[in-house]
TrEMBL record:
Transmembrane segments: none annotated. SUPFAM superfamilies: Carboxypeptidase regulatory domain-like. This is T9SS type A sorting domain-containing protein. Residues 1-26 form the signal peptide.
Amino acid sequence: MTPTHFSRTLLTTIVTSLMLASPVFAADLPSVQQSGRIEYLTGGIGSDESNAMKAEARHYPLAIEMAKGREGHYVADVDVAISNVKGKQVFEANSTGPFMLVKLPPGNYIVKATLDGVTKQQKVNVGAQGSKHLSISWPAPAGSAL
């Protein structure tokens, strides 16, 4: 075996090992969607997809995590609307899982999330770099085990 062949074989083995050892694969991510001109991901059902979404969050200026009850049980089917500070709605979508990653331009926004007719609202400042994490939670229904 020549030194060049050995180096290529070693490099291929190392890269393959790293890929197989990684818990997050692009295949675990849901498809990128669009609301107007804004790209977003929504999902996080199941541990593989949830881990993939958490890892991908660093590439999105805004990461929203949604849960219900004291224990923070993840929820889906949440209507999310984002407006700028002047009140103009710039984004609207329904979450198919507990995570929503949104590629918003830098600025100040108001995020409204509605689950079962109950709307929660939070202000958020999205910077030019990094990712802002926003947690939104709803109380468990009365008499619920959540």
